[in-house]
Design a protein that fits this description.
Elements: E1 2-6, H1 7-13, E2 21-25, H2 32-41, E3 47-50, H3 52-62, E4 72-74, E5 92-96, H4 104-120, E6 123-126, H5 129-137, E7 143-145, H6 162-168, E8 175-179, H7 188-197, E9 206-210, H8 216-226, E10 230-234, H9 239-244, E11 248-251, H10 260-268, E12 272-275, H11 280-284, E13 289-291, H12 296-307, H13 310-324, H14 330-346
């Protein structure tokens, strides 16, 4: 198995330690990337690209006359592979984990790239039904649902951990937790609008947002100017512990497929308020409070309702653990993808 990805991802995922052959790729936008992929793909059975950018590059690499057969995992670090085989066009699998919402000319380019890549792919795997439907609208010949579940934590996590709450400054007040990149479309403006409406609660809840991004300075200016009970704590490697200490988790995004925050919250039994977008309703079922994207009144009301209703929080905590038990395991996810590889390799 060969994995092609930027060098820093090997440090994160340790492909070499897992036994894969690793091909480091040049930075995004470097024309040498396609050449490197083309060389890596020679002689493989299947190529699996993760995400739109990786799919575009894989399509270009496989379209070269010299690349008659190929197999490699491309993009986010998940693996694709097979043994050397000759003859026939190399099957391309592409996985859509999520999608950005782009407007104007950039949105048009994105749709064009989506159409090109899904039509070149033998199979498109979508991590939510919404993404599968989108791939079919773009012209995919074979689009299938392939939900990816984040592996469960390896160790015990203490719910409502006093140390974590003390560190965050929420010993004697409710703690709300949001996690994600501080970027446009993540709904943090709406979340701050909601936080403004919680100031009349006694005690006033503290909203903690873990993550970094280009919007941090603008968000912090607003937090300071409006004296909101909100803390931006940057990237953290102990998100599960912090989330477990929260009274309510909040997901205000415009677009989500299989949200990592939603999965962690439901597994931990932390009540979740989330926007009813993308794959979120399918992921959480009845185990979360869902609100429209961009509706600060609905978001604030849902959080307020949970803070004032301990029984409802307990019900959601129990429902969340049950819902998490319906998600595919890590082994089932791997087996599903390998069955696709076997199917495609067997056609050649």
């Amino acid at each position: 198995m060969t994995v092609c990805a930027p060098a820093e991802l090997d440090r994160l995922y340790d492909y070499l330690g897992a036994g894969a052959h690793f091909v480091p790729l040049p930075r995004l936008g470097d024309p040498a990337t396609v050449t490197a992929l083309r060389n890596a793909c020679i002689g493989a059975d299947v190529v699996h690209a993760h995400g739109l950018q990786a799919s575009v590059r894989a399509t270009l690499a496989l379209s070269a006359p010299s690349c008659g057969s190929a197999s490699a995992g491309l993009g986010s670090g998940r693996a694709g592979g097979g043994s050397t085989s000759g003859g026939g066009r190399t099957p391309l699998v592409t996985t859509w984990h999520s999608r950005n919402h782009l407007d104007g000319a950039r949105g048009g380019v994105q749709r064009l790239l989506e159409r090109r890549t899904v039509r070149a792919a033998s199979v498109v795997l979508g991590t939510s039904s919404e993404l599968v439907d989108r791939a079919r609208r773009r012209g995919a010949r074979d689009a299938r649902l392939a939900p990816v579940t984040v592996p469960a934590g390896r160790g015990p996590v203490c719910l409502h951990d006093g140390k974590a709450r003390a560190e965050l400054g929420a010993v004697d007040r409710p703690l709300l937790m949001a996690v994600g990149a501080l970027e446009r479309g993540r709904g943090y403006g709406t979340l701050l609008d909601a936080a403004r409406s919680w100031r009349d609660l006694d005690p006033q809840p503290l909203l903690v947002i873990a993550g970094e991004g280009r919007e941090r300075a603008a968000l912090q200016r607003r937090i300071t100017a409006e004296r909101l009970a909100v803390r931006l704590i940057g990237r953290r490697d102990d998100v599960a512990e912090l989330l477990a200490a929260a009274d309510v988790a909040v997901l205000p995004s415009r677009r989500e497929a299989r949200s990592l925050l939603a999965q962690e919250a439901l597994r931990l039994g932390v009540p979740l308020v989330a926007t009813a977008v993308g794959g979120v309703p399918e992921l959480v079922g009845d185990a979360a409070e869902l609100v429209p994207y961009g509706d600060a009144v609905a978001l604030a009301g849902a959080v307020r309702g949970l803070l004032e209703d301990a029984d409802r929080r307990m019900d959601l905590a129990a429902a969340g653990r049950v819902q998490a038990g319906t998600w595919p395991t890590e082994d089932e996810t791997v087996a599903h993808v390998l069955s696709v590889y076997d199917e495609l390799a067997g056609r050649r």
